[in-house]
Amino acid sequence: MSSATSRTSTLGVAPPPRPTLSFDHLGCVIAIIIGIALFAAPFATYRATRIASGEARFLIEALPIAMGTVIVVVSLGVAVVAVLVRDPFGRLGSAVIGLAVLLPALGLSAGFLTPADNTFARVSPSLGFWLLTLSFSLLAIDALARLRLGPYGRLVALAVGVSALALLLFSGIWDSLSILKEYHTRADTFWREARQHLLLAFGSMAAACIIGIPLGIAAYRLKTLRTALLQGLGIVQTIPSIALFGLLMAPLGAIAASVPLAAALGIKGIGAAPAFIALFLYALFPIVANTIAGLSQVPAAAVDAARGMGMSARQQLVEIEMPLAFPVILAGIRIVLVQNLGLATVAALIGGGGFGTFVFQGIGQTAIDLVLLGAIPTVALSFASSIFLDALVDLAKGAHA
Protein backbone atom coordinates (compact mmCIF):
# COMPACT_ATOMS: atom_id res chain seq x y z
CA MET A 1 0.00 0.00 0.00
CA SER A 2 1.44 3.38 -0.96
CA SER A 3 2.02 6.18 1.52
CA ALA A 4 -0.61 8.37 -0.18
CA THR A 5 -3.20 5.64 0.14
CA SER A 6 -2.22 5.11 3.77
CA ARG A 7 -2.66 8.80 4.54
CA THR A 8 -6.08 8.81 2.86
CA SER A 9 -7.20 5.80 4.85
CA THR A 10 -5.81 7.29 8.06
CA LEU A 11 -7.71 10.53 7.55
CA GLY A 12 -10.91 8.58 6.84
CA VAL A 13 -11.51 10.22 3.46
CA ALA A 14 -12.75 7.93 0.66
CA PRO A 15 -10.79 8.02 -2.60
CA PRO A 16 -12.57 9.75 -5.51
CA PRO A 17 -14.79 7.39 -7.57
CA ARG A 18 -13.48 6.15 -10.86
CA PRO A 19 -15.23 7.67 -13.87
CA THR A 20 -17.74 5.33 -15.50
CA LEU A 21 -19.05 5.34 -19.06
CA SER A 22 -22.75 6.27 -19.09
CA PHE A 23 -25.04 5.29 -21.96
CA ASP A 24 -28.17 7.25 -22.84
CA HIS A 25 -31.13 4.83 -22.90
CA LEU A 26 -33.02 6.53 -25.71
CA GLY A 27 -29.73 6.93 -27.56
CA CYS A 28 -29.16 3.17 -27.41
CA VAL A 29 -32.57 2.58 -29.01
CA ILE A 30 -31.79 5.16 -31.70
CA ALA A 31 -28.41 3.53 -32.37
CA ILE A 32 -30.07 0.12 -32.81
CA ILE A 33 -32.59 1.60 -35.27
CA ILE A 34 -29.75 3.23 -37.21
CA GLY A 35 -27.88 -0.08 -37.37
CA ILE A 36 -30.95 -1.89 -38.70
CA ALA A 37 -31.56 0.88 -41.24
CA LEU A 38 -27.98 0.80 -42.55
CA PHE A 39 -27.27 -2.91 -42.69
CA ALA A 40 -30.56 -4.85 -42.58
CA ALA A 41 -33.20 -2.78 -44.40
CA PRO A 42 -33.49 -1.59 -48.03
CA PHE A 43 -32.95 2.13 -48.61
CA ALA A 44 -35.12 2.50 -51.73
CA THR A 45 -37.59 0.53 -53.85
CA TYR A 46 -37.37 0.43 -57.64
CA ARG A 47 -40.43 -0.29 -59.81
CA ALA A 48 -40.43 -0.67 -63.57
CA THR A 49 -43.87 1.02 -63.60
CA ARG A 50 -45.97 2.76 -60.96
CA ILE A 51 -47.97 -0.38 -60.14
CA ALA A 52 -45.29 -3.03 -60.75
CA SER A 53 -43.85 -5.09 -57.92
CA GLY A 54 -41.01 -3.31 -56.19
CA GLU A 55 -37.37 -4.40 -56.11
CA ALA A 56 -35.55 -3.55 -52.87
CA ARG A 57 -32.26 -1.70 -53.14
CA PHE A 58 -29.95 -1.55 -50.14
CA LEU A 59 -27.90 1.54 -49.42
CA ILE A 60 -24.82 0.27 -51.25
CA GLU A 61 -26.95 -0.34 -54.38
CA ALA A 62 -29.20 2.72 -54.17
CA LEU A 63 -26.50 5.41 -54.17
CA PRO A 64 -23.11 6.11 -55.74
CA ILE A 65 -20.37 4.64 -53.58
CA ALA A 66 -19.11 8.03 -52.37
CA MET A 67 -22.56 9.21 -51.26
CA GLY A 68 -23.37 5.86 -49.71
CA THR A 69 -20.15 6.02 -47.70
CA VAL A 70 -21.01 9.53 -46.49
CA ILE A 71 -24.45 8.34 -45.35
CA VAL A 72 -22.94 5.41 -43.43
CA VAL A 73 -20.24 7.52 -41.74
CA VAL A 74 -22.63 10.31 -40.77
CA SER A 75 -25.26 7.86 -39.52
CA LEU A 76 -22.75 5.99 -37.37
CA GLY A 77 -21.52 9.32 -36.01
CA VAL A 78 -25.10 10.27 -35.09
CA ALA A 79 -25.49 6.87 -33.37
CA VAL A 80 -22.35 7.49 -31.27
CA VAL A 81 -23.57 10.97 -30.29
CA ALA A 82 -27.00 9.59 -29.39
CA VAL A 83 -25.48 6.98 -27.07
CA LEU A 84 -22.67 8.96 -25.42
CA VAL A 85 -23.43 12.69 -25.62
CA ARG A 86 -25.88 14.24 -23.18
CA ASP A 87 -25.47 17.87 -24.24
CA PRO A 88 -28.72 18.86 -26.03
CA PHE A 89 -26.97 21.19 -28.48
CA GLY A 90 -24.60 18.40 -29.52
CA ARG A 91 -27.50 15.98 -29.96
CA LEU A 92 -29.53 18.52 -31.93
CA GLY A 93 -26.58 19.43 -34.15
CA SER A 94 -25.84 15.79 -35.00
CA ALA A 95 -29.51 15.12 -35.80
CA VAL A 96 -29.68 18.16 -38.08
CA ILE A 97 -26.50 17.07 -39.89
CA GLY A 98 -27.92 13.59 -40.34
CA LEU A 99 -31.16 14.90 -41.84
CA ALA A 100 -29.28 17.44 -43.99
CA VAL A 101 -27.28 14.59 -45.56
CA LEU A 102 -30.03 11.97 -45.70
CA LEU A 103 -32.92 13.91 -47.27
CA PRO A 104 -31.10 15.17 -50.38
CA ALA A 105 -29.53 11.71 -50.78
CA LEU A 106 -32.99 10.26 -51.34
CA GLY A 107 -33.44 12.44 -54.42
CA LEU A 108 -29.97 11.47 -55.63
CA SER A 109 -30.92 7.82 -55.22
CA ALA A 110 -33.97 8.28 -57.44
CA GLY A 111 -31.87 9.79 -60.22
CA PHE A 112 -29.19 7.12 -59.78
CA LEU A 113 -31.60 4.17 -60.02
CA THR A 114 -33.84 5.48 -62.82
CA PRO A 115 -32.53 4.64 -66.32
CA ALA A 116 -31.91 7.60 -68.60
CA ASP A 117 -34.97 8.81 -70.57
CA ASN A 118 -37.20 6.32 -68.72
CA THR A 119 -40.48 7.99 -67.76
CA PHE A 120 -42.19 4.82 -66.51
CA ALA A 121 -39.80 3.72 -63.75
CA ARG A 122 -40.58 4.69 -60.17
CA VAL A 123 -38.27 4.99 -57.15
CA SER A 124 -39.70 5.23 -53.65
CA PRO A 125 -38.15 5.49 -50.18
CA SER A 126 -38.03 2.14 -48.43
CA LEU A 127 -37.79 0.93 -44.83
CA GLY A 128 -34.14 1.90 -44.34
CA PHE A 129 -34.76 5.52 -45.31
CA TRP A 130 -37.81 5.78 -43.07
CA LEU A 131 -35.93 4.25 -40.13
CA LEU A 132 -33.03 6.68 -40.55
CA THR A 133 -35.46 9.59 -40.78
CA LEU A 134 -37.26 8.34 -37.68
CA SER A 135 -34.04 7.94 -35.68
CA PHE A 136 -32.65 11.37 -36.60
CA SER A 137 -36.04 12.99 -35.92
CA LEU A 138 -36.32 11.27 -32.53
CA LEU A 139 -32.89 12.55 -31.59
CA ALA A 140 -33.82 16.10 -32.66
CA ILE A 141 -37.12 15.99 -30.73
CA ASP A 142 -35.35 14.63 -27.66
CA ALA A 143 -32.76 17.42 -27.87
CA LEU A 144 -35.46 20.08 -28.21
CA ALA A 145 -37.29 18.59 -25.22
CA ARG A 146 -34.08 18.75 -23.14
CA LEU A 147 -33.61 22.38 -24.16
CA ARG A 148 -37.10 23.09 -22.80
CA LEU A 149 -37.86 25.68 -25.42
CA GLY A 150 -40.51 28.24 -24.69
CA PRO A 151 -43.45 28.85 -27.02
CA TYR A 152 -41.52 31.27 -29.23
CA GLY A 153 -38.61 28.83 -29.46
CA ARG A 154 -40.95 26.03 -30.57
CA LEU A 155 -42.54 28.29 -33.18
CA VAL A 156 -39.08 29.21 -34.51
CA ALA A 157 -38.10 25.53 -34.65
CA LEU A 158 -41.34 24.76 -36.54
CA ALA A 159 -40.69 27.60 -38.99
CA VAL A 160 -37.13 26.38 -39.60
CA GLY A 161 -38.36 22.82 -40.24
CA VAL A 162 -41.09 23.97 -42.63
CA SER A 163 -38.65 26.24 -44.47
CA ALA A 164 -36.11 23.42 -44.88
CA LEU A 165 -38.79 21.09 -46.25
CA ALA A 166 -40.05 23.77 -48.64
CA LEU A 167 -36.48 24.35 -49.84
CA LEU A 168 -36.11 20.66 -50.64
CA LEU A 169 -39.40 20.55 -52.51
CA PHE A 170 -38.81 23.69 -54.58
CA SER A 171 -35.15 22.91 -55.30
CA GLY A 172 -36.14 19.98 -57.54
CA ILE A 173 -33.87 17.52 -55.70
CA TRP A 174 -36.80 15.18 -55.13
CA ASP A 175 -38.44 15.54 -58.55
CA SER A 176 -37.37 12.04 -59.63
CA LEU A 177 -39.14 10.41 -56.68
CA SER A 178 -42.33 8.54 -57.40
CA ILE A 179 -44.45 10.58 -55.00
CA LEU A 180 -43.38 13.83 -56.71
CA LYS A 181 -44.18 12.32 -60.11
CA GLU A 182 -47.64 11.45 -58.79
CA TYR A 183 -47.99 15.04 -57.60
CA HIS A 184 -46.89 16.60 -60.90
CA THR A 185 -49.51 14.61 -62.84
CA ARG A 186 -52.21 15.65 -60.37
CA ALA A 187 -51.10 19.13 -59.27
CA ASP A 188 -54.43 20.86 -59.98
CA THR A 189 -56.40 18.07 -58.32
CA PHE A 190 -54.02 18.02 -55.35
CA TRP A 191 -54.56 21.68 -54.50
CA ARG A 192 -58.31 21.41 -55.03
CA GLU A 193 -58.48 18.49 -52.61
CA ALA A 194 -56.15 20.34 -50.22
CA ARG A 195 -58.58 23.27 -50.09
CA GLN A 196 -61.46 20.87 -49.52
CA HIS A 197 -59.58 19.08 -46.73
CA LEU A 198 -58.79 22.36 -44.96
CA LEU A 199 -62.36 23.57 -45.42
CA LEU A 200 -63.76 20.44 -43.82
CA ALA A 201 -61.28 20.44 -40.91
CA PHE A 202 -61.12 24.17 -40.13
CA GLY A 203 -64.74 24.91 -41.06
CA SER A 204 -66.16 22.21 -38.80
CA MET A 205 -63.82 23.36 -36.00
CA ALA A 206 -64.99 26.97 -36.39
CA ALA A 207 -68.63 25.90 -36.35
CA ALA A 208 -68.01 23.78 -33.26
CA CYS A 209 -66.41 26.77 -31.50
CA ILE A 210 -69.32 29.06 -32.40
CA ILE A 211 -71.86 26.55 -31.06
CA GLY A 212 -69.83 24.66 -28.47
CA ILE A 213 -68.41 27.54 -26.38
CA PRO A 214 -71.86 29.06 -25.61
CA LEU A 215 -73.14 25.53 -24.90
CA GLY A 216 -70.23 24.99 -22.53
CA ILE A 217 -70.96 28.26 -20.74
CA ALA A 218 -74.62 27.31 -20.36
CA ALA A 219 -73.71 23.82 -19.16
CA TYR A 220 -71.30 25.32 -16.61
CA ARG A 221 -74.12 27.43 -15.21
CA LEU A 222 -76.75 24.64 -15.26
CA LYS A 223 -75.67 21.33 -13.77
CA THR A 224 -78.65 19.39 -15.17
CA LEU A 225 -77.87 20.56 -18.70
CA ARG A 226 -74.18 19.74 -18.15
CA THR A 227 -74.81 16.10 -17.34
CA ALA A 228 -77.21 15.47 -20.23
CA LEU A 229 -75.10 17.39 -22.75
CA LEU A 230 -71.81 15.69 -21.90
CA GLN A 231 -73.40 12.26 -21.92
CA GLY A 232 -75.04 12.86 -25.29
CA LEU A 233 -71.86 14.22 -26.89
CA GLY A 234 -69.87 11.40 -25.30
CA ILE A 235 -72.10 8.88 -27.07
CA VAL A 236 -71.38 10.58 -30.41
CA GLN A 237 -67.65 10.18 -29.74
CA THR A 238 -68.08 6.39 -29.48
CA ILE A 239 -69.61 6.06 -32.97
CA PRO A 240 -67.02 5.10 -35.62
CA SER A 241 -66.56 7.79 -38.26
CA ILE A 242 -67.67 5.64 -41.19
CA ALA A 243 -70.79 4.59 -39.28
CA LEU A 244 -71.64 8.20 -38.45
CA PHE A 245 -71.19 9.21 -42.11
CA GLY A 246 -73.59 6.40 -43.04
CA LEU A 247 -76.15 7.42 -40.41
CA LEU A 248 -76.19 10.97 -41.77
CA MET A 249 -76.61 9.98 -45.42
CA ALA A 250 -80.26 8.92 -45.16
CA PRO A 251 -81.72 12.01 -43.39
CA LEU A 252 -79.66 14.42 -45.48
CA GLY A 253 -80.72 12.65 -48.65
CA ALA A 254 -84.37 12.94 -47.58
CA ILE A 255 -83.94 16.66 -46.83
CA ALA A 256 -82.34 17.24 -50.25
CA ALA A 257 -85.23 15.41 -51.96
CA SER A 258 -87.97 17.34 -50.16
CA VAL A 259 -86.36 20.78 -49.87
CA PRO A 260 -85.06 22.11 -53.22
CA LEU A 261 -83.24 24.99 -51.50
CA ALA A 262 -81.23 22.53 -49.41
CA ALA A 263 -80.22 20.63 -52.53
CA ALA A 264 -79.25 23.89 -54.21
CA LEU A 265 -77.01 24.72 -51.25
CA GLY A 266 -75.19 21.40 -51.65
CA ILE A 267 -76.89 19.51 -48.82
CA LYS A 268 -77.34 15.92 -49.94
CA GLY A 269 -76.80 12.35 -48.79
CA ILE A 270 -73.27 12.08 -50.10
CA GLY A 271 -70.49 14.62 -50.49
CA ALA A 272 -69.19 17.31 -48.20
CA ALA A 273 -72.40 17.92 -46.21
CA PRO A 274 -72.50 14.65 -44.18
CA ALA A 275 -68.72 14.82 -43.72
CA PHE A 276 -68.89 18.39 -42.42
CA ILE A 277 -71.74 17.61 -40.02
CA ALA A 278 -70.01 14.49 -38.72
CA LEU A 279 -66.78 16.38 -38.07
CA PHE A 280 -68.78 19.14 -36.38
CA LEU A 281 -70.47 16.60 -34.07
CA TYR A 282 -67.13 14.98 -33.20
CA ALA A 283 -65.67 18.42 -32.44
CA LEU A 284 -68.40 19.50 -30.05
CA PHE A 285 -67.42 17.27 -27.12
CA PRO A 286 -63.82 18.54 -26.64
CA ILE A 287 -64.95 22.16 -27.06
CA VAL A 288 -67.84 21.90 -24.60
CA ALA A 289 -65.90 19.79 -22.08
CA ASN A 290 -62.88 22.11 -22.08
CA THR A 291 -65.07 25.20 -21.79
CA ILE A 292 -66.67 23.72 -18.69
CA ALA A 293 -63.29 22.65 -17.31
CA GLY A 294 -61.75 26.04 -17.97
CA LEU A 295 -64.55 27.94 -16.26
CA SER A 296 -64.48 25.52 -13.33
CA GLN A 297 -60.79 26.31 -12.76
CA VAL A 298 -61.31 30.07 -12.48
CA PRO A 299 -60.31 31.03 -8.90
CA ALA A 300 -63.31 31.85 -6.73
CA ALA A 301 -61.38 34.79 -5.31
CA ALA A 302 -61.19 36.41 -8.77
CA VAL A 303 -64.95 36.04 -9.24
CA ASP A 304 -65.66 37.40 -5.74
CA ALA A 305 -63.38 40.37 -6.40
CA ALA A 306 -65.18 41.12 -9.66
CA ARG A 307 -68.52 40.87 -7.92
CA GLY A 308 -67.29 43.17 -5.18
CA MET A 309 -66.31 45.74 -7.81
CA GLY A 310 -69.93 45.80 -8.95
CA MET A 311 -69.49 43.88 -12.20
CA SER A 312 -72.59 42.33 -13.71
CA ALA A 313 -72.73 38.59 -14.45
CA ARG A 314 -72.03 39.32 -18.13
CA GLN A 315 -69.04 41.51 -17.28
CA GLN A 316 -67.66 38.85 -14.96
CA LEU A 317 -67.92 36.27 -17.74
CA VAL A 318 -66.40 38.43 -20.49
CA GLU A 319 -63.70 40.25 -18.52
CA ILE A 320 -62.70 37.72 -15.84
CA GLU A 321 -63.88 34.15 -16.37
CA MET A 322 -63.42 33.69 -20.12
CA PRO A 323 -59.88 35.19 -20.26
CA LEU A 324 -58.79 32.94 -17.38
CA ALA A 325 -60.47 29.90 -18.95
CA PHE A 326 -59.11 30.63 -22.43
CA PRO A 327 -55.93 28.47 -22.21
CA VAL A 328 -58.00 25.38 -21.36
CA ILE A 329 -60.51 26.16 -24.12
CA LEU A 330 -57.64 26.62 -26.58
CA ALA A 331 -56.29 23.20 -25.56
CA GLY A 332 -59.68 21.75 -26.54
CA ILE A 333 -59.50 23.54 -29.90
CA ARG A 334 -56.07 21.98 -30.44
CA ILE A 335 -57.52 18.50 -29.82
CA VAL A 336 -60.36 19.21 -32.25
CA LEU A 337 -58.15 20.49 -35.06
CA VAL A 338 -55.71 17.56 -34.93
CA GLN A 339 -58.65 15.15 -34.73
CA ASN A 340 -60.53 16.74 -37.62
CA LEU A 341 -57.49 16.87 -39.89
CA GLY A 342 -57.21 13.10 -39.52
CA LEU A 343 -60.91 12.29 -39.72
CA ALA A 344 -61.38 14.46 -42.82
CA THR A 345 -59.37 11.85 -44.71
CA VAL A 346 -62.21 9.35 -44.27
CA ALA A 347 -64.66 11.83 -45.84
CA ALA A 348 -63.43 10.78 -49.29
CA LEU A 349 -65.32 7.49 -48.85
CA ILE A 350 -68.62 9.34 -49.19
CA GLY A 351 -67.48 11.82 -51.84
CA GLY A 352 -66.46 14.52 -49.38
CA GLY A 353 -63.09 15.08 -51.05
CA GLY A 354 -59.88 15.98 -49.27
CA PHE A 355 -56.55 14.17 -49.13
CA GLY A 356 -58.37 10.91 -48.52
CA THR A 357 -59.22 10.91 -52.24
CA PHE A 358 -55.59 10.04 -53.03
CA VAL A 359 -55.37 7.54 -50.18
CA PHE A 360 -58.34 5.48 -51.37
CA GLN A 361 -57.43 5.84 -55.06
CA GLY A 362 -53.97 4.55 -54.25
CA ILE A 363 -55.37 1.60 -52.31
CA GLY A 364 -57.64 0.74 -55.22
CA GLN A 365 -54.80 0.97 -57.75
CA THR A 366 -52.18 -0.69 -55.49
CA ALA A 367 -50.10 2.49 -55.88
CA ILE A 368 -48.41 3.13 -52.54
CA ASP A 369 -46.99 6.49 -53.64
CA LEU A 370 -50.48 7.76 -54.40
CA VAL A 371 -51.48 6.70 -50.88
CA LEU A 372 -48.50 8.65 -49.49
CA LEU A 373 -49.49 11.70 -51.56
CA GLY A 374 -52.62 11.91 -49.43
CA ALA A 375 -51.26 10.58 -46.13
CA ILE A 376 -48.05 12.62 -45.75
CA PRO A 377 -49.70 16.09 -46.05
CA THR A 378 -52.34 15.00 -43.54
CA VAL A 379 -49.72 13.90 -41.01
CA ALA A 380 -47.62 17.01 -41.62
CA LEU A 381 -50.61 19.33 -41.14
CA SER A 382 -51.62 17.57 -37.92
CA PHE A 383 -48.07 17.71 -36.54
CA ALA A 384 -47.57 21.39 -37.42
CA SER A 385 -51.01 22.36 -36.06
CA SER A 386 -50.32 20.56 -32.80
CA ILE A 387 -47.00 22.38 -32.26
CA PHE A 388 -48.47 25.75 -33.24
CA LEU A 389 -51.50 25.49 -30.96
CA ASP A 390 -49.41 24.06 -28.10
CA ALA A 391 -47.29 27.21 -28.29
CA LEU A 392 -50.42 29.38 -28.30
CA VAL A 393 -51.73 27.57 -25.22
CA ASP A 394 -48.47 28.29 -23.38
CA LEU A 395 -48.57 31.94 -24.48
CA ALA A 396 -52.15 32.23 -23.23
CA LYS A 397 -51.16 30.70 -19.89
CA GLY A 398 -48.24 33.10 -19.59
CA ALA A 399 -50.45 36.09 -20.37
CA HIS A 400 -52.73 35.28 -17.42
CA ALA A 401 -50.11 33.94 -15.02
Notes on the protein architecture:
The chain is mainly alpha-helical. It folds into 2 domains: 25-176; 186-399, MetI-like fold, CATH 1.10.3720. 76% of the residues lie in helices and 3% in strands. It contains 17 helices and 3 strands. The protein has helices at 3-11, 25-39, 59-62, 65-84, 88-113, 127-147, 151-171, 178-185, 187-221, 223-238, 241-258, 260-264, 272-296, 300-308, 313-343, 356-365, 368-399, and strands spanning 44-47, 55-57, 122-125. A 3-stranded antiparallel beta sheet has the order 2-1-3. The radius of gyration is 28 Å and the shape is flat. The termini are far apart. Mean pLDDT is 87; it is low at 6-10.
Write the layout of secondary structure elements.
Elements: H1 3-11, H2 25-39, E1 44-47, E2 55-57, H3 59-62, H4 65-84, H5 88-113, E3 122-125, H6 127-147, H7 151-171, H8 178-185, H9 187-221, H10 223-238, H11 241-258, H12 260-264, H13 272-296, H14 300-308, H15 313-343, H16 356-365, H17 368-399
Antiparallel strand pairs: 1-2, 1-3
List keywords for this structure.
single chain; mainly alpha; 3% strand; 17 helices; 76% helix; 401 residues; three-stranded antiparallel sheet; MetI-like fold; flat
